[in-house]
Specification:
- The chain is α/β, with parallel strands linked by helices and about 240 residues long.
- The protein contains eight helices and nine strands.
- Helix 1 crosses helix 8 and helix 3 packs parallel to helix 4.
- The radius of gyration is 17 Å and the shape is globular.
Length: about 240
């Protein structure tokens, strides 16, 4: 028997990185996985593993509502979609601020807004949000708006956990450090000196290496199972000691 047998999970930003690794972990443990992303071509690679793949722009409220209407049952919602803006406050224009909050925070509001009523009706549910160590946990250079959005995710998580604990709905967030994903590699390559940027990222890893997407997915899997049934409203750190 799988640890998620009989459960239905919705995952955003599922095409690659942590979202994809989480879908694969959920599928291995018997869940029905509805994987969503704006990159449908990459997303469809999960179909061969048994996932139901759906194109979804989580910044589009109408699209989110239409998607939710097509999902009759949900047990697990993993809000993974996000964007890392590189820069200080003075580097951040209003459009960068607004986009970061729209994707990193408001998308979670949109998804939770449409799926919480279903969870309340069935008197059970499990929401896992993507935050970061770069948040209210730790200030990181050149992560001003990103860290601010991820601090907001922690606040949102705790507020929802308090509001819906009596409905048997758990809400937690994960706070990774530096994870080796296509997103990270892309940001490194975008720097003026990618080799030095890679060395700088590696130098701050106290365990001497990046975290893997699969290691983060293992944590998400634990929070998604009934093994963690007494955990709610928490920010769970997985950073190899970076925040120490």
């Amino acid at each position: 028997m799988g640890r998620l047998d009989g459960k239905t999970a919705v995952v955003t930003a599922a095409a690659q990185g942590i979202g994809r690794a989480t879908c694969e972990a959920f599928l291995r443990e018997g869940a029905k996985v509805i994987a969503t992303d704006i990159n449908l071509d990459k997303l469809k690679e999960l179909e061969s593993l048994g996932a139901v793949c759906q194109s979804l722009d989580v910044t589009d409220s109408a699209a989110v509502k239409k998607f939710a209407d097509s999902v009759p049952k949900i047990d697990i919602l993993f809000n993974c979609a996000g964007f890392v803006f590189h820069g200080t406050l003075l580097d951040t224009e209003e459009k960068d601020w607004d986009f970061s909050f729209d994707l990193n925070v408001k998308s979670m509001y949109r998804m939770c807004k449409v799926f919480l009523p279903k969870m309340i009706q069935q008197d059970s549910g499990n929401i896992i949000n993507m935050s970061s160590v770069a948040s209210s946990i730790k200030g990181a250079p050149n992560r001003c708006v990103y860290g601010t959005t991820k601090a907001a995710v922690i606040g949102l998580t705790k507020a929802m956990a308090a509001d819906y604990v009596s409905n048997n709905i758990r809400v937690n967030c994960i706070c990774p450090g530096t994870v080796d994903t296509p997103s990270l590699r892309g940001r490194i390559q975008a720097q003026p000196d990618p080799d030095q940027a890679l060395k700088d990222f590696q130098a701050r890893q106290k365990l001497g290496r990046f975290c893997t997407a699969e290691e983060v997915a293992n944590l998400i899997l634990y929070l998604a199972t009934d093994e963690s049934v007494y955990i709610t409203g928490q920010q769970v750190i997985i950073d190899g000691g970076w925040s120490l």
